[in-house]
Specification:
Blueprint (H helix, E strand, L loop, with lengths): L20 H26 L13 H24 L12 H11 L2 H14 L3 E7 L4 E7 L24 H4 L3 H10 L3 H12 L1
Antiparallel strand pairs: 1-2
Helix pairs in contact: 1-2, 3-4
This protein binds fe (ii) ion.
Amino acid sequence: MSPFQVKDLPYAKNAVEGISEKEMEIHHDKLYVGYVNKRNEIEEALKTTDKSKAHHNYSEFRALKLEETFNADGQILHELYFQTMGPNAGVTKPSEALMKKIEESFGSLENYLEDLKAVALAARGWAVSAYEPTDGKIHNFLADFHSHGGVWGAIPILTVDVYEHAFFMDYGSDKKSYLEAWAKVINWDEVSKNFDKVTK
Ligand SMILES: [Fe+2]
């Protein structure tokens, strides 16, 4: 079985006011499903690609990893999009807790929606409203394509800096040796702590 499954629409294709059945059908059944299928195809290809040829200018592995992110984000953003709209136009409202956070972040629901729509107007791909744990507020982020700006919803537990400033002084252009050295100094206690936080 493929690792990633298509999520059915949680309502009929003609149920959302303002969005036609035809539009919903193409968007969900063709475009969204295409991201899930391609992500599965890439997962399969990654099992046999030659990692010893990994290179930042070009390698098959790099191309697959780039498109993995693109298609994963295409899947995730669309699922959230379809999930967070529905047939009950004007009936639902933010919970007490969400409203409190929106007011804390934007002053009012009206300001929040004004900002979200402005971001959407300024974006070439997505406006993404997200809870940002750094300041504990809600932010509306702009993404010009799915994989611009990160994997939405993923909380990082470990990073490695591969900008040249991180290794050039010590290793010259020998990025591989830098990564070998770096792997030996990972603080797994800290990584484990981060992982615990994410999964609790
Ligand atoms: Fe889309």
